[in-house]
Specification:
Blueprint lengths: L5 H10 L7 H5 L7 H13 L9 E16 L4 E6 L8 E11 L2 E12 L25 E13 L3 E8 L30 E3 L5 E5 L16 E7 L6 E8 L3 E12 L2 E13 L9 E13 L4 E12 L5 E13 L7 E12 L4 E14 L4 E13 L12 E11 L1
Antiparallel strand pairs: 1-2, 1-3, 1-19, 3-4, 4-5, 5-6, 6-9, 7-8, 9-10, 10-11, 11-12, 12-13, 13-14, 14-15, 15-16, 16-17, 17-18, 18-19
Helix pairs in contact: 1-3
Length: 408
């Protein structure tokens, strides 16, 4: 039997409930006694993820995530079933790595995303949202989120080239270690394309995703074709820099560690894009963002603050966004940790003197045995301006969402 069939043979034995062979039957190997076993091995080999070669490892990971959202725009209400929005949607990631020499490795990442309904593109007239980033017109889309190779040195750091997250891709929110990052962050995943209604009940022509700066803190928040460098970690600190997408570059510093009974994580990142709106993914703009997360180890009490400052060099639009979240993370039952949180966001933009706010509360229950998280959350959004959009006032927008994510 081929050597590469040994692992499949072991799996076949386990699936059969164990393979018990007596000395008598072991001596009788004539005829077609092993035909069924060989057929099962062939089936396993055909359905098992195989290495491209014997030197590079292969790891498959990802998650499946869906949610149910009730929304009310002040005039109409409805219930939609969607994914979590592109970059958080159901996905599968293939990661490979091989040792070049001790201390040096090379590898790759291929990250594929699939979504039956993109929450970023649902609105009052579109209950099943088509893909946003990939430009797909169907309601079911598959797109490549990341595809890059890397070389890493334990002492010198890591260089990556290809389609990947640059340093500024949602860096501020990634310090959140509370377990509530997916359902509660400063990106308008659930209501980006929903239209804002005025107090007369009509549409203003503006969307909730455009009510603040960016959407509202997600200014440079998508993967880009780029070159990225990540330093090794020294005393909890590390630094990164990346360049790509027609003259876009960014630099950042991070810290993660424990101090006086607290878990701490912090980052600060500056990004600049000068390629112009015609050729650059990010236009002509500057963006600074920072995030700080602290959690008391004994009690589980935690707090998060994110800050973003954006300047559009073409339209001269500029603004700031602040996001706060606080709560408690404790294991009150045998399933896993429970997270209770409250959140508040404020975004101000210079054009039309817009002020966008939301507040919300939620609960997350982790289920350790299934590598799963379930959540229930409520949010209220409101916006005011100088009369450009909300001359007669604008209606608030409310949502109640139940969702779950299971890792594999």
């Amino acid at each position: 039997m081929k050597k590469q069939s040994l692992s499949a043979l072991a799996a076949a034995g386990l699936l059969a409930g164990g393979l018990s062979v007596t000395s008598a039957s072991a001596a009788d190997l004539g005829g077609n006694c092993c035909a069924d076993l060989e057929e099962r091995i062939a089936e396993l080999e055909a359905t098992t993820a195989r290495k491209g070669n014997r030197k590079v490892s292969l790891t498959i990971s990802g998650w499946v995530a869906e949610q149910v959202t009730y929304w009310d725009d002040g005039v109409e209400d409805n219930v939609y079933v969607t994914g979590l929005g592109s970059t958080l949607a159901t996905n599968v990631k293939f990661t490979g790595q091989a040792t070049i020499v001790p201390g040096w490795t090379a590898g790759y990442v291929l990250h594929i995303e699939a979504d039956g309904s993109d929450s970023l593109t649902t609105n009052q007239v579109t209950p099943r949202g088509p893909g946003l980033l990939g430009g797909a017109v169907s309601n079911n889309f598959v797109q490549t989120m990341q595809s890059f190779w890397f070389i890493k040195s334990e002492s010198l750091g890591k260089v990556s080239i290809g389609l990947q997250s640059m340093v500024s891709d949602n860096a501020a929110i990634l310090v959140d270690g509370s377990g509530s990052l997916v359902p509660a962050n400063w990106v308008a995943f659930d209501f980006l394309s929903f239209g804002i209604r005025n107090n007369a009940g009509g549409f203003t022509g503006a969307t909730w995703g455009g009510a603040g700066i960016c959407i509202p803190g997600d200014c440079f928040g998508v993967p880009a074709n780029s070159v990225r460098y990540d330093s090794p970690t020294f005393a909890g600190f590390s630094a990164s820099a990346s360049w790509g997408d027609d003259e876009m570059w960014d630099v950042g510093i991070r810290y993660a560690g424990e101090l006086h009974g607290f878990k701490l994580a912090a980052t600060a990142v500056y990004a600049e894009s000068s390629g112009g709106t015609a050729s650059s993914l990010f236009g002509d703009a500057d963006y600074f963002q920072a995030g700080l997360y602290a959690q008391h180890i004994g009690t589980g009490l935690f707090g998060l603050v994110n800050y973003g400052d954006f300047e559009n060099n073409i339209t001269t639009d500029e603004g700031e966004v602040w996001y706060f979240k606080a709560g408690i993370r404790q294991k009150w039952n045998h399933l896993g940790a429970t997270v209770l949180y409250g959140e508040y966001l404020n975004s101000e933009a210079s054009i039309a003197s817009r002020e966008f706010e939301w507040y919300g509360v939620g609960v997350v229950q982790e289920i350790d045995a299934a590598a799963m998280s379930m959540w229930l959350k409520y949010r209220n959004m409101s916006v005011e301006d100088d009369g450009t959009v909300c001359a007669a006032g604008c209606q608030d927008f409310d949502e109640v969402t139940f969702g779950a994510l299971i890792n594999f």
